[in-house]
Design brief:
Elements (H helix, E strand, L loop, with lengths): L1 E5 L7 E2 L2 E2 L1 H18 L3 E5 L10 H15 L4 E5 L6 H5 L2 H4 L4 E3 L10 E5 L2 E8 L4 H7 L8 H12 L6 E7 L1 E2 L17 E2 L9 E5 L5 E2 L4 E3 L16 E7 L5 E7 L6 E6 L1 H4 L2 H4 L8 E6 L8 H8 L2 E7 L2 H4 L5 H4 L7 H13 L5 H18 L1
Parallel strand pairs: 1-4, 4-5, 5-6, 8-9, 9-12, 10-11, 12-14, 17-18, 18-19
Antiparallel strand pairs: 1-15, 2-3, 7-8, 13-14, 15-16
Helix pairs in contact: 1-2, 5-6, 12-13
Length: 379
């Protein structure tokens, strides 16, 4: 069985108040071109379809268009919801679409039944695991001891009763210990969300979402990464579509097809005079790319951001790297880019500034829990 593995589309995402909807429409068309060339039997979308639990009408329309076009190219599509999605909204109409070959993870109710796909003489069981928290699992198994994401996942997989005599694939949205992360991800503090890759041993392949950098966790466990860069920490990453094949002998082969964005996300460094010199940016795409400028001038340049945005139309962020900033002698409120930080990061920075040291583990867990409750109440 041949498949493509996608995740973390984050349709509707904004970065530094720039809407990426146009960029996402472009890259989804590129994905469709690759799909048409590869002719897979199935497509896996491993969560975070949208960037918000209540996506905009424009975001929903874009995904709807992509899904229609993808279904015309792929017989079977597997979709699970991620932590940015509303599981109930993503699952709407799922039982009807299931008949047409679009299989969507329902809201977790204590059971996960596989979708069995037949390709020629081969049958493969696909298990759809949406993003779930320990409290959700505990609700259906109150007698079980569930104190962590790892405890919850162990129980969920045990309840699947995976038949090792068959071929099995898991499509899931979660965080595996040891995965290399990017700044654009929303993760629990201190690795509380992490689970061991060893838990996926019952499966011939585990198609993961949640972590934005493409990477193999093991021979059969992989994050495909985002199709676009969503933070400057990913500036040097190479985005791609993961194409896999499950062979008769049980071996999974993986290759990647590169995705070239309409506008790249890049970092440039130098003095103000250097980065504004015409020969620095002429004959490049820098003037249209999304740009983080790091100035090395010892003195701040008056109105630098406004001046740079005239040259770099996708200018997003300005920082200084000089003796003053390296010594830490800068104004936190003015020099820290707040839009790139999570609420927990902001509180942790403020706490450290006021108290001369970081929070301890107990304090961090308490603040993380409080923020999570507030975010849930806002949904």
């Amino acid at each position: 069985m041949k498949f493509i593995h996608l995740s973390d589309l984050h349709i509707g995402k904004r970065v530094y108040e720039y809407s990426l909807l146009d960029d996402q429409a472009y890259i989804l068309e590129e994905i469709l071109k690759i799909t048409e060339e590869e002719k897979p039997d199935a497509a896996f979308l491993a969560g975070d379809i949208y960037d918000k639990s209540v996506p905009s009408a424009e975001a929903v329309a874009l995904f709807d268009d992509f899904l229609v076009k993808l279904k015309a190219l792929v017989p079977e599509i597997i979709i699970v919801s991620g932590n940015h999605d509303s599981a109930a909204r993503v699952a709407f109409g799922g039982r009807i679409m299931d008949r047409s070959g679009i299989h969507i993870s329902p809201v977790y109710d204590g059971r996960i039944e596989p979708v069995t796909l037949e390709t020629g003489e081969e049958c493969v069981n696909i298990y759809l695991l949406p993003y779930i928290k320990p409290v959700q699992v505990k609700h259906y198994f109150p007698e079980e001891e569930i104190n962590s994401f790892s405890d919850a996942l162990k129980l969920v997989i045990r309840q699947m009763n995976v038949d090792n005599a068959s071929r099995n694939i898991l499509v899931a949205h979660l965080c595996v210990t040891g995965a290399e992360r990017a700044e654009s991800e929303e993760l629990y503090i201190g690795g509380a969300e992490d689970v061991s890759a060893e838990l996926f041993e019952p499966f011939d392949y585990t198609a993961l979402g949640h972590i934005h950098r493409p990477q193999n966790i093991s021979r059969t466990v992989r994050y495909c990464g985002t199709p676009l860069k969503y933070s400057f920490s990913e500036a040097k990453d190479r985005k791609s579509v993961t194409v896999g094949e499950l062979h008769e002998d049980g071996v999974v082969s993986i290759k990647t097809e590169p995705l070239i964005p309409k506008r790249d996300m890049v970092e440039i460094r130098g003095t103000y005079e250097e980065v504004t010199a015409r020969d620095f940016y002429a004959d490049t795409s820098l003037t249209e790319d999304y740009v983080h400028v790091i100035l090395t001038d010892e003195e701040d340049i008056p109105d630098a951001a406004a001046k740079l945005s005239v040259i770099y139309h996708g200018f997003m962020k300005l920082d200084y790297d000089n003796k003053r900033t390296r010594l830490g002698g800068f104004d936190f409120a003015q020099q820290t880019d707040l839009s790139e930080k999570t609420p927990f990061d902001l509180f942790a920075d403020l706490y450290e500034k006021q108290n001369g040291g970081p929070m301890d583990k107990e304090q961090a867990e308490m603040i993380s829990s409080m923020i999570e409750k507030l975010q849930e109440a806002e949904k």
